[in-house]
Specification:
Number of strands: 16
Order of helices and strands: EEEEEEEEEEEEEEEEH
CATH topology of the largest domain: Immunoglobulin-like
Strand content: 35-45%
CATH class of the largest domain: Mainly Beta
CATH architecture of the largest domain: Sandwich
CATH superfamily of the largest domain: Immunoglobulins
Radius of gyration: 29 Å
Helix content: 10-25%
Largest sheet: 5 strands, mixed
Length: 242
Amino acid sequence: MTFSPGVHRQPSLSAQPGPLLLPGDSLTLQCHSEPGFDRFALTKDEGPTPPQGLHGQHSPNFTLGPVNFTHGGRYRCYSGRNLSYVWSAPSTPLDILIAGKYRKPSLSAQPGRSMPWGANVTLQCRSEVRADTFHLHREGSLDPPQQLRLQDPAAPSQANFTISPVTWGHNGTYRCYSSCSSSPFQLSQPSDPLELVVSAQGPQRSLHMLTGVSVTLVLLLSLLLFLLLHHKHRSKGKTSGE
């Protein structure tokens, strides 16, 4: 398959169920392009994997799996038209990570797993074996894991992921992974799950309290105005009757 990429607008590449998998999982890479394209190709930067091609489909699915550690790597896709030998620019690269290679790290939360809205929390991923890169992932998220690389790795190694400030969107179950930069797409086994709970306190609770006080004041003012008008009306009635 010969490429002359860069003429047409680049497609986009996504992974289902996500870019982080365990050996044995199924993986589908979806190449999305504008209407009118019916040829698609998938390439992998690392290893001897030849480009894969699909013809006569729009936004086709490249099915890979059950996956193993050789499927980890950086992928790109291209789109083209059937009557042309010219391909689009490559998609933004997509990293596929395969977990399960090394012993699992541990994950903890400081100051705790439950905190008020607007507070700060640090998720600490600690590995008992030497590692120089750590990954944090929220279950159910299609986004790639957050990644931190240590400047001076040692054993044991640890990385701190700080979330500041926490919001409702940070609720969920988290796992972390460790890896070595020499094999960046092969991760450790996942840590035990850690559930993060954000409660309605702090600034959010203050806002609710302020709203409640405002509503109470409006009701009191309305009641006073009603009593004042009622008293005035009765006074006018007495004056007219005299």
